[in-house]
Amino acid sequence: MGTEREANEKASGEGDASQLEAASIADVSVEVATVDHTLHKICRKYRKTRRKPKGLKRLQAHLLSIPHLAVIITAVVFVVVVIMWSLLWVFLFRRESNSGVYFAGMFRVANVEFIPEYRQAESREFVSMASKIQHVVSNVFKVSSVARLYKQAIISDLSNNDKGGVLVHFWMAFVVPQLRSQSVCEECVEAIFRDSVHSSMMNRSSVGYLLGLPVDMDSILINAVERWDYSSSGAGSQCAGKLYASLPGLSVPLNVFSPWGGVSCHVKLTSAPGSVIRLTVTSFVIEPSDCVSDGLSVYDALLPMRGRILHRMCEPVSSSFSLVSTSNVMLLSFRLTDGNKSFRGHFEAIAEEVSMSQIETHIEPDIIGQIYSPFHPSLLPPQCFCTWKFETPSSALGVALQFENYVLKPKEVNGCEHGWWKVNEIIFCGSYVGHHTVFRIADHSPEVEFRCSSRISAQPFQASYSSYNISQPCPENHFLCSTGLCVEKSRRCDGLDDCQDESDEVFCSRPTKNCGGNSPLHPMFVCNGETDCTNGIDEINCTQETPCSAIRYQCNSGSCILKKNAKCDGILDCQDHSDEADCACGRPSSVKKTGSPPGRERIVGGDNSVEGEWPWQVSLHFSGNLYCGASVLSSDWLVSAAHCFSKERLSDPRYWSAHLGMLTQGSAKHVAEIQRIVVHEYYNEYTFDYDIALLQLKKPWPPSLSPLVQPVCLPPSSHAVTDSHRCVVTGWGYRHEDDKVLPSVLQKADVSIVSQTDCKKSLGPVSSRMLCAGVPSGERDACRGDSGGPLACQAPGGGRWFLIGIVSWGSGCGRPNLPGVYTRVNKFTSWIYSHIS
Ligand code: ARG
What separation in Å is there between the alpha carbon of 531 and the centre of ligand 1? Predict the structure, then answer.
């Protein structure tokens, strides 16, 4: 006992839990044999009676006599009861039988010298050390409250890190009656072990002398694992490898190919103490499936412990990137199905980045330098620390840090999830955003501290630093945005989000229609499809070529036109006609009106829809129940809200189904399975910023479903919604914020777009990726269950319907002056296309 190999070879005695399960399967067949046996006996008896034709008549008469008849009926009833009982036992109670519960754990044995032989599980030294440790672990659990359920511990690896001693990785198996599965929870098992170490502690150190074994309490980590992990990383695994990088900087190639039938594979990497491991992924060829069939999980340990996950690769990788461990061990857990799946890369030992890398930077005005996240350009590990000290030539000059897609904000109640910063003793949290930001420090010699704080590896960052004039951060005639950027004053309130967070576009007075004046007409009125000026000058020359910007419509050729809503409006505007290409979208099907009369069943002011009215509407069911809405974008892609998928189980596509072409719950024309869920990488679960996700269907929906199932049109980024558009939110969500019953018929409610300024006034933190819609009285709104569903708007004159918003959040439902908040879809047009096309 003691090593993985031995445990797997062992055929009797304590045995591993897989044997136990095999034993329980054998039990089942014994019971079936009993039933068979009984049946056999009956049959034999029956056959015997048939073989005696002479006495048959006599027997018949004998049998038909009343007392005998009673005996026979009783016997038959008895046999039937026995059979039924046996079947019941086999099918019901056996299910409630024992099952294996598995854990992976690690702890450090202090004050023990590590010897290189420990790296080989076959060595005598390993076996003797492992059995000693295994004995101690077993003894702890054999006298614990779960002693009867404890099966065994297997020591899988002994390694050493810079803390000294020996780092032990181990498996544990319990055999638990299913009804008692709670008694061996992860916390309980860890607590038992910790308590034992704790009670064996002699002095103030964290090391307890557990049956003479010096175990470091601070190093204990125990995680529940799947049976799959337990069995696939043992000796029975198709592919298990241990690789050691001895020399720093020497790169060891690592290539894995899936053989016929696929492979599940654990590769353990170790390097010398004091170093960390950098894994470079050059390419990863797989079928994207959210890691359900193909994927690679990288762990910051030698066993697949959830708490130590570094990175998960569920999508193919074509451009190389690297990631780093926090110590000298790393585990790669591959799952590759049949087909030409492959992983190519290499790993190397690198020096642990000095925890206190001080960069003294003397900044001269107009000189720009760069600071980088630790291990840049590798992904950031979950633990790192770095400080930068800056010095500008004069006390009038501060330091400005310009980030490409990262922002620092004062720390709020929640911890920092994407980087912890201390700038001259004030704490800030970092987060990723889709635009530039500038962080200004009004001090001429600031000290900036950065700590990694993500649970798993995070995107690296870099910032350019420069000095700036503290009394006047922006140049003359410039406006200071909340993102820290400086934009020309003339750009304030011009209808364009120059600041990237709309801070130049809020609290603007409503622009006047300067129709005849010499100053240019406000961009909001120009070529928006409506005649704002009586002389019509706002709608002339709308298709002539013009310099491109975020509010200009861009044709496929790359040239831009002024007409904002050129896409699929039925008029050829672009010379390449691209504006009218791919326009099979946004048209309700003209199906005869059915269902209950509209106007009765109100969801926060909604009415019943009719069949085919919103053919893009999808009802998303999680574990069989309505959970969110979504919209059809194409034959195999849907769009919804990121927050519908943000928790662990919610992100697993296997639990979801998409109900298409449905008016009344339960009557979908098509139910589709989900292949993968792409949640926006910058989605923030506290602020609901970037609340968008894409869902790919396992199979495209059949074209015969059209017109009851149809895509909604995707607005180009220039798309402008005016007051004369009709906007409707649809869904099967609650009809009132404290309702308990969901409506069965799809509800629809007309709402109006609320200006960003008004929305911020009433709801506060509304980002430029959000859009508000509602009615002042609040009587029409979306509510819980509508999330992810569409807010679609139609141009006047019966144009096509465009997906303008995705139901995201609100303050209650249908409250006066508190509009609903939606994801602003036109901010994500290129993100969407980058995934679906
Ligand atoms: N977050 C909600 C959901 O998960 C949607 C809330 C919308 N609220 C509103 N008042 N518009 O279904």
Answer: 35
